[in-house]
Write a structure and sequence with these properties.
single chain; 34% helix; 7 helices; globular; Arc Repressor Mutant, subunit A; D-Maltodextrin-Binding Protein, domain 2; 5-stranded mixed β-sheet; 3 domains; 270 residues; alpha/beta
């Protein structure tokens, strides 16, 4: 039935909307332009229906959220209980994953991201900043010595975050300017907590957001190195699509998180 309806629409428009093969279906160039326009029209219709029925100012429905695994578990998940108690008409579904999702194609309402944001048509609201520094275990430093300058990393074992946009290149602040240092990593993983644990076990020097190693620092399992050459902090941002009529659930969630993080998130590097 869907195939027939799509074929009828293509005939009416006079263009192919889908590229089809025996194993795969994808949007054509025309389809890629047509689809988001249809989504926008449907959302505007839904918003208009809600306004007419007096529901526009009430946050209701399912809110689909994408969040980085570690940051989401440590900071977002504990905040959800309060949000749900404030907004009884909203259901929340969170996907904890470190990849960058496509909000439109994957039908997410909002996404939390830690890091520099590429230019896009998304609305970005900053929640705070994550400080970035290098760490190693006392045992490792006793064995290999402590680096005094980023160039000394060539003599050390390095642990790398494999989802980094610039793997093998670490950026430091040296004399008020950015300096990129190439590193040869010995061990890589796509999860920050796994890298922190590997550093605690003496596998090498790791470069991570400070919030991932707070407990390890307090327990003496990790020590900061190259403290005079920290990296620029990374923004923690909430992203959502830029629409003329965004559902109330998105607005109240964004406002809640900004308020919550202002109260709970300590900005600035210690």
């Amino acid at each position: 039935m869907v195939t027939r309806q799509v074929a009828a629409l293509e005939k009416e428009l006079g263009v192919r909307l889908l590229n089809r093969s025996t194993r795969h279906v994808s949007l054509s160039e025309a389809g890629a332009e047509y689809y988001p326009g249809c989504i926008e029209l449907l959302e505007r219709l839904d918003a208009l229906d809600s306004r007419v029925s007096g529901q526009a100012e009430r946050a209701t429905g399912l809110l689909r959220v994408s969040a980085p695994l570690d940051f989401g578990l440590m900071y977002l998940r504990p905040a959800i209980r309060e949000f749900l108690s404030r907004e009884p008409g909203v259901r929340v579904e969170i996907f904890f994953e470190d990849r960058t999702v496509d909000l439109l194609d994957e039908r997410f309402d909002v996404s939390l991201r830690v890091g520099r944001l590429p230019d896009s048509n998304l609305v970005a609201r900053r929640l705070g900043q994550a400080c970035i520094a290098c760490y190693a275990s006392p045992d490792y430093l006793a064995f290999k010595g402590e680096p005094d300058h980023p160039t000394d990393l060539s003599d050390h074992q390095v642990l790398e975050y494999s989802l980094s946009p610039t793997p093998g290149k670490w950026r430091f602040q040296c004399s008020n300017r950015d300096v990129d240092q190439q590193v040869e990593w010995r061990f890589a993983a796509n999860n920050g907590r796994a890298l922190a644990e590997a550093a605690c076990e003496g596998l090498g020097i790791v470069r991570l957001p400070e919030f991932l190693v707070t407990d390890h620092l307090a327990q003496g399992r990790l020590l900061e190195v190259l403290a005079d050459y920290r990296s620029d902090p990374l923004d923690v941002s909430l992203l959502y699509l830029q629409r003329r009529l965004n559902p109330a659930k998105i607005k109240v969630f964004a406002d809640f998180l900004i308020e919550h993080f202002q109260e709970t998130w300590s900005e600035g590097c210690s």
